[in-house]
Each structure stands twice: as C-alpha cells, then as structure tokens.
Amino acid sequence: MRQLVTPVTGPLKGEVEEVDHNSQTTERQPVNPLEECRRRPIIMATLTIILLVSTVFALGDAMKRPKTPCERARDAVINGPPGVYVPTCDCQGEYTPEQHWGSTGSSWCVTRTGQKILGTETPPGTASVKCACSGSRR
C-alpha cells in the first residue's frame, strides 16, 4: 500500500514523500518541477553561460563589419598569378595613401577610393613619392 505524506520537517522543503509500507522504501519527489531548478542555480548558470558562448560563436562572423572596397580588391587578387598588383589597405580597410607594385618597383599616390592621382607615379629604381596622409586626401 502506497501513501503520500507531506513532511512537516525535512532536509528539502516542498517535497512529497512516497512511502511504500510493504517494502519500507521511501522516495522523495519535488512538488514543483521548477523546485529542482531553484535548488541547482549552478547548473542553470552554467547552461546560461554555455548558451551565451554558443550564440557568440554562432554569430561571430555575422557581427564583423563588411569588407571595404580596398579589402575586396585585395582579396580578389591576393592569390592570383605572380606579379599582379595587390592593393595595400590600412587597419580600417581604406586604401593607404601610397601604393606599391612589388613586381615592377613603381609606386604612386591614390585617393580615398583607390584612384591613382595623376603625376604621382614613380618609375622603378627611384625614390618613392611622399603622399598626403589619408585625412587630407580627396
């Protein structure tokens, strides 16, 4: 014969004690399923942290800024054939004021959009031209 008894005192509040008088066994079961969660805040905190970290990793690539025109132009040719001109971008992804073509040795100044400024190209073997800093470029 099984009987449900709610203990007046006990180690865990909100439990129902199930007593089987024939086998002398006792089982404790929570009255409220959320009671288990309240008793184990460390588990809930751990699961929350795992969820947040997983979300950050899943969205990590989506949270990056889009590539700039300079970065797209550079990435399009960086693994291309040897000798091709590869644009130089700064840490914000903008064209650096002075561009160099490594295989030919020539250099020139560019606008913010990467357009060559006429009259600034230096032939191979000559000193590089001094270009304006990016703040004063067109």
From TrEMBL:
Membrane-spanning segments: 42-59
What is a biological process (GO) this protein takes part in?
cell-matrix adhesion
* Location(s) in or outside the cell: Secreted
Q: Which CDD domains match?
A: TY
Domain of life of the organism in this record? Eukaryota
Disulfide-bonded cysteines: C70-C89
Q: Which GO terms describe its cellular component?
A: basement membrane; extracellular space
- Report the residue ranges that make up the Thyroglobulin type-1 domain in this protein: 67-131
Q: Which Pfam families match?
A: Thyroglobulin_1
Q: Which UniProt keywords apply?
A: Disulfide bond, Membrane, Repeat, Secreted, Transmembrane, Transmembrane helix
The protein in question is named: Thyroglobulin type-1 domain-containing protein
Q: Which organism is it from?
A: Salmo trutta
